[in-house]
Design a protein that fits this description.
By secondary structure, the protein is mainly beta. It has 8 helices and 40 strands. Helix 2 packs parallel to helix 3. Keywords: Signal.
Length: about 650
Amino acid sequence: MTLSNSTRASGLVRRRVAVGATAAFLGLAVAVGSGLATAASAAEPTTLTGIILGVGADETQRIVTWYSSADTAQKIQLAPTAEVVNGEFPASAVTFDATGGANIATSGGFNRHATITGLKEHTAYSYRVGAEGTWSPAYSFKTQDFEGDYDFLFFGDPQIGSSGDIAKDQAGWQDTLNVALTANPDIEMLVSGGDHVETANTEAQWSAFLSPDQLRQYPVAATIGNHDVGGKAWEQHHFTPNTDRSAPYYSNGNPASNTSGGDYWYIYKDVLFIDLNSNSYATSQGGGGDEAHTAYVTDVINQHGAEAKWKVLVYHHSIYSPASHAKDGDNKTRRVDFPTTFSKLGVDMVLQGHDHSYSRSYLIKNGEKADPNEQPGADEVVAGPGGVLYVTANSASGSKYYDITKPDSSGTSGAGNGADPLNPGNYWYNSVENQEHVRTYVKVQVRNDKLVVENIRSAANGDQGVGSIVDKVSVHPYHADGQDIQVNVPAPAPGEFGWTIDGYNGLVDLGTAQERDGSYFEANGKINPILVSDSRRSLAPWSISASVGDFQDADKKFSGSYLGWTPSLLDGGAGAQASAAVLSGYDDQGPGLSVSRGLAFAEQGHPRGSAKLGADLDLKFPDSIEKGSYRTTLTITALSS
């Protein structure tokens, strides 16, 4: 049996998605002058600088941006690294045409960008930019599995030049990348929190920021900071996918002005990322203000939220931070304008910069602490409906640090900066605050059923060595009253499979299905136990039943009828009797669990008490199902007289 990857159309097509209900639930310049001058100019080689590898619309794409000293037609050339011999690209190398324009006067030259498409998973690629006779050096990157778990890194405010010593700031930035990527060589993406440079259009600072070769080896998702926004250099250096560059997303409402702006989104495997230009926050400046951003986030999530398991926002101005910007008026405004919308849309995490210190919020719902009892520094948190984690990253270069400031009496919700009742030295909204005047970076692990966030030192602090952890938390998502069930379909030969049950209502992971008899796949697991308690004097009958919808991975799906089960009593009581087994529809051509089926029941007059119900799941489906990671939701219904 062979399972092949699905063929993608030219537009963005996503795979894996959790669906279901919950229970009782991108010219030519003419030079005028003497022939001698023109000939001399023509003899000058084209210089290509500032090359940076950026994220694309999804994991099959990358966008490369660079500067050129000449206004000539240019492109990207790409080939599998294994086919590049002695630096020579093969005849089969593909090319992608670049577009761009003239830079502003202070930057000089021209900017170019092109989008690499059609990448395959588990492949090392080499690329170069320019044209025949004027190619840049070759750089390489690798793709990994286009499904499943992955890690990315988040960096706060390199702000090269803010210390007054560009070389020093560059060295710190380079060292953080060296440390982070030596420790995490298989990281899949680098996300910035903005403020790449101190002065928006100072190219010496941009050259220092772009100097690390890692920025040509790992895709970068760039964010506009307040030190970046005051010129066009940010836009010239970063071309981003799915970007709305209309007036509302520029602070002055004028995209043609000498400023940078725009909001953008992309999906990388299981995460929908939305990046906002938080410099545009007040309509009095001419832009659309915070309302434009919340409308943008709403629209993107409504259109694309179902294409990913997680929703992560990134913008520069931290609204829940611990240092000098915590009480800024503009941040207090954002703190009122943003959180309720983010909660209602099911945002899982917000990554921020600006305050040059580290903080991790409590789970925040509608501008308030979601659970008053969530303890400071908890290393495991479970997000109820609307709970959002906000993370502020410290300086990744060490160019500037801000010291933590103290709470006041302005309140413990909304725009307030009052003290945390459980930890009065912190603001009410922060579970962890940290400033050691030591460079750090944030590592985010994206897993099936949790996000793991770590703040890690990239320089030593006394006994705390390089690579030591400042803070770590696992964030588990809200599952409501249903149970999400996932199975990984392999291609073509299956691997291992397994299941886990946590102490909370976690993902029921059926693992990787195994091929049987070269004709079908099979996966097994158990539902999370269900506890039934009945203390009524009426001793009325009761029953528990459940059903599933289609297993779905974006536009791919297969019927829930292929799932069957064998109910069981884990602990007897309350007169509970296990219902009959239900065969997979693959076995009997029946509806399986695609229709409501009994799990357990008790008859009239049963004794009072409790019972713990379980069921072994049996999933069998044809080998024609495409590779993917499919989910459905088990909808549970309780009935009683």
